Amino acid sequence: MFARNKYYWSPARFFRNLGGVSTNIPRQIEIFRIMRFPIYADFARTEPRFRFRFLIRDYLVRGFSTGRRAACFLHHYKRLYASMSADLLHRTLYQNVIVFEAQQNDLHLEISLCFSRPFEKEGELSLNLHVDGAVVFVLSFTIIPGWVVQSDSAEVLLISRLQGTNGYYRQIRAATKALNDVGPAALLLAALHGIAKAFGINTMAGVSAVRQSSFTEKLSHFYVSAYDDFFSEIGIAKSTSGLFLSSIPPEDRPMSSIKQGHKIRTREKREFKRQVAEEVRLLLRQEMNVTVSEPSCDEESLQMVDCIDS
Fold this sequence. Notes:
Blueprint: H1 11-22, H2 25-34, H3 38-46, H4 66-83, H5 86-94, E1 97-104, E2 107-115, E3 125-131, E4 134-145, E5 155-164, H6 169-178, H7 184-199, E6 203-206, H8 220-233, E7 244-247, H9 263-285, H10 297-309
Parallel strand pairs: 5-6
Antiparallel strand pairs: 1-2, 2-3, 3-4, 4-5, 6-7
Helix pairs in contact: 2-4, 4-10, 7-9
């Protein structure tokens, strides 16, 4: 299968990925079995590297072993297949599913849910903020087993990309002003909370700057601001896993800690974000068969294998 794709014709890449597949053989077999489902098999014909994304170096989070990456990939696509209607899953993989829409003055604003492109190692799904048709901000995430990030929850929404698009500062500023002064990152996070509620997931994890897949020392200040500072500002602490862990939604700061003159505006912003989350939840639940995921015996056995792998 590697030989059919020119991407893997590099000898170093070929043998590195072949070694990845040969690790945790039972898990790889299960991935290949899931990828034979018609919806995924058809999608793999248009996206040849789709079924091997978890083998990409620094997939999702820097430092994840092959076993952890495989567990995340498999859990995510099993969960989508079990919970989404066939039509919703098809539209999510091939198109943009509009989960929120607003018209403010001359601005047309949308949030769409879709398969992550082109940043294939930074999350399996993306929430994109569109301003007049242009994507100006992206939040990418994956549904993963909780044990991977040392969470007691059965499953977690892992945020692995939260960045604006270069060249759209004016549109981002206009969108923030139009939407109750709620910034794009906070807006997309509210939409993610709606997705979490639709799936019955109550925990999220956010990647830290140095563990973000595309982190570079040269741009470290940018990554720290986009990830560490953002999560800290909304009250999420970094866990022993090196990631930011929180309930969904994170607890709001007490109103007593908000300065006088800002409380009314703060309440308005919080209510707006709750409305966005609820709108997304209701839209998705119309086309979902929600089940609360529990770790299977196979997933628990993988935890033991993963310790050996890492």
